[in-house]
């Protein structure tokens, strides 16, 4: 199905009684004003069968979801989300990222995997207690599985599982998605098991250790949602959310810099004197569908509400040039940064992204680190990369290559 803001894939096949909500006013009313009525999630047989409905992202709105979201927010903040401690980790990882870019020695390369490595290592340091080297074979395998699962989830066959759920139990090539997801979950289960074998209740190494504590506290409570099945689902949610969306945004950012080199120059000029300083070690670091009047939104019980965030970010009644790369959207008449209420890439309401603070820090530090260190350009004899999106679970850039020069 196509709306004026983009594709909503086979909506009537994937969801029954689905309504797409377009525009800022309507989305705000649905997600914020009437959040109690719109915070649930529909049952998606494909995710249920894959074992991905017991965490935070796809679980139903109720006591399980509330308890696990509250725990996740509390624990992420205790491990530094939004604080100076996690900033130091991101800055350190930005150094590894810049070194990996510089190792390309100016040759054309696709930044996809190295960006995924860097961004993923930040959330890994919180949930697993450590980062992975960019050459770690098992880590690379996990990231490749993640990408492959996104590609498979975007294929037409997955949209028929709603109509023909028996397909999920019948052998055939369509089972590849579940095989990939199972391998990915096996990788996470192995990490959890190794944590269990070395767990010391007196030491909090990471998110998994704190979850173990909660499991011990609630081991006699038959209604507790703290169990290893939930832990696996939440770790899977956090790893995906803390990896793909942020690295995807960084790729879009670099793509825009290739197409708008004059903006790249302005950014470098503006961030240089403000954020760059020389550390004692001599390294560059960073300082700290149809909808009536939105005011009369009526929801029919059992209807799947799909808020089209793209329609908000491209709402012509709010943005001067909604379909163009126009940084001035966020500048006032004096050229200073201006916060826009309608800028909601992390959604809004009760289901707003748990890791918003971490993602914002990742994006700022990684992007400014790269722009301070390198000048990016389109490789010689290559056409400008495509700017239209590729649907692969989310809107991603088509693969592209970059060349860089150390500033």
Polypeptide structure, described:
With 407 residues, the chain is mainly α. It has a single domain, classed as Cytochrome p450. The protein is 48% helix and 8% strand. It is built from 15 helices and ten strands. The strands form five sheets. It has a two-stranded antiparallel ribbon with strand order 1-2. The chain starts with a strand and ends with a strand. 27% of the residues are buried. Heme binds at residue 353. It is a peripheral membrane protein. Belongs to the cytochrome P450 family.
Layout of SSEs?
Layout: E1 2-3, E2 6-7, H1 11-14, E3 18-21, H2 24-33, H3 35-38, H4 45-50, H5 63-78, H6 84-102, H7 112-127, H8 137-153, H9 176-198, H10 207-217, H11 228-241, H12 244-259, H13 261-275, E4 276-278, E5 284-286, E6 304-307, H14 309-313, H15 356-373, E7 374-377, E8 389-392, E9 394-397, E10 403-406
Helix pairs in contact: 6-7, 6-15, 7-11, 7-12, 8-9, 12-13, 12-15
């Amino acid at each position: 199905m196509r709306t004026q803001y983009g594709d909503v894939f086979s909506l009537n096949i994937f969801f029954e009684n689905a309504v797409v909500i377009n525009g800022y006013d309507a989305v705000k009313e649905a997600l914020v004003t009437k959040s109690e009525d719109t915070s649930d999630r529909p049952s998606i047989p494909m995710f249920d069968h894959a074992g991905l409905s017991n965490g935070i992202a796809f679980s139903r709105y109720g006591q399980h979801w509330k308890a696990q979201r509250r725990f996740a927010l509390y624990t992420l903040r205790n491990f530094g989300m939004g604080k100076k401690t996690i900033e130091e980790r991101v800055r350190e990882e930005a150094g590894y990222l810049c070194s990996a870019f510089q190792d390309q020695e100016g040759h054309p390369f696709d930044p996809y995997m190295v960006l995924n490595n860097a961004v993923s290592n930040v959330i890994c340091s919180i949930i697993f207690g450590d980062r992975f080297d960019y050459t770690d074979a098992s880590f690379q395998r996990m990231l490749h599985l993640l990408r492959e699962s996104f590609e498979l989830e975007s294929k037409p066959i997955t949209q028929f599982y709603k109509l023909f759920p028996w397909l999920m139990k019948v052998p055939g090539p369509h089972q590849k998605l579940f095989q990939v997801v199972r391998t990915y979950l096996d990788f996470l289960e192995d990490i959890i098991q190794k944590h269990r074998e070395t767990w010391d209740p007196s030491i909090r190494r990471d998110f998994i250790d704190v979850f173990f504590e909660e499991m011990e506290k609630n081991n006699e409570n038959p209604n507790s949602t703290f169990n290893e099945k939930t832990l696996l689902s939440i770790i899977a949610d956090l790893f995906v959310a803390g990896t793909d969306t942020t690295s995807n945004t960084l790729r879009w950012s670099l793509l825009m810099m290739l197409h708008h080199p004059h903006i790249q120059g302005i950014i470098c000029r503006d961030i240089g004197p403000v954020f760059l300083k020389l550390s004692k070690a001599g390294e560059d670091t960073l300082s700290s569908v149809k909808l009536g009047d939105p005011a009369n939104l009526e929801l029919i019980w059992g209807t799947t509400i799909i808020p089209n965030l793209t329609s908000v970010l491209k709402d012509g009644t709010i943005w001067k040039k909604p379909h163009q790369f126009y940084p001035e959207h966020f500048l006032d008449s004096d050229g200073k940064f201006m916060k826009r209420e309608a800028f909601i890439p992390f959604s809004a309401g009760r289901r707003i992204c748990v890791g918003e603070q971490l993602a914002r820090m990742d994006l700022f530090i990684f992007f400014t680190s790269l722009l301070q260190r390198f000048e990016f350009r389109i490789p010689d004899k290559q056409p400008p990369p495509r700017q239209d999106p590729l649907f692969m679970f989310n809107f991603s850039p088509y693969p592209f290559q970059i060349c860089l020069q150390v500033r």
